[in-house]
Amino acid sequence: MELRQLRYFVAIVDHGSLSRAALALHVAQPALTQQLRQLEDELGVQLLHRSAQGMLSNDAGKIFYEHAQAILKQVADARSAVVQSAERPGGSVTLGLPHSISGALALPLLTASRARYPEITLQLTEELTGNLNEQLRSGRVNLAVLFDDGQLGQFATTPLVEEELRFICRADAPYALGQPALTLQEAVATPLILPGLQHGVRPRIESVLRSAGLVLSSVIEINSIAILKSALLADLGATILPSAPVLDELQRGTLRAQAICDPAISRTVVLCASKNIPLTTAAHAVSTLVRQVCADLCADGAWPGAAVIDG
């Protein structure tokens, strides 16, 4: 198996056809077809099949595509690690962000990266936390912002912030109107709209509820942040979330956020890297930058409900 075969296979999947992949790779289509056939012969399985929509991956092809992407990224990272300097780091760095964090962190981080490290191509990917775990393990992302649930021992972790979860609803909704805070029991007594368990925030809420002897009675599950916000604005219920995903709506005054007490709910946000795959100089630089941007956002009050974790 050769690296070029992996590159060819990934290109065919990405472009959806042999002809378009051949043009992008500047390779004759018969040569591309031959390399694909040799790859499938070596693996002993068919990876792609033709359809009216073009070349599509079968189940084996989808699995192999994920591995091929990870291998090609690690090869590119190894090349970058050799040629880049600590003074002017360059190359590509992929950082994974959960949906509930990107609203606060993504744009400030991109702006800071462009200003401080113009030779680094920072690629941000927004995913469910479970997907980010897998991508970090396989090397498809260099770094990931995750939540410390006690299950991150496989990664090298750096604490970033402690983020408060708040009771959020439409600005004119009757729930606890005029109160600066409400108890957790009062919060769960309202109709709630929450992400599913595959989102990092939901297991944290469930854990605190169990410890407090409380249970959720009425919940609408919505896994899309955009749809969840629409449901809040339609006054279908309230939610328990950090402020980050709804910063724009809070600033415009269409939603309001209230503190939760007795007990409060918070989560620890950490930056994670693989223990097995070395970071490039550029990835180290981005890691330091993430910590600095988080600290600046908290100091400026631009990340409501978040406090920097010292050390």
UniProtKB/TrEMBL annotation:
**One Pfam family it belongs to:** HTH_1
Q: Which GO terms describe its molecular function?
A: DNA binding; DNA-binding transcription factor activity
GO terms in the biological process aspect are: regulation of DNA-templated transcription initiation
Q: Which Gene3D superfamilies match?
A: 3.40.190.290, Winged helix-like DNA-binding domain superfamily/Winged helix DNA-binding domain
Is Transcription a UniProt keyword of this protein?
Answer: yes
Keyword terms: Activator, DNA-binding, Transcription, Transcription regulation
Q: Which protein family is it in?
A: Belongs to the LysR transcriptional regulatory family.
State the protein's name. HTH-type transcriptional regulator CynR
Q: Which gene holds the coding sequence for this protein? A: cynR_3
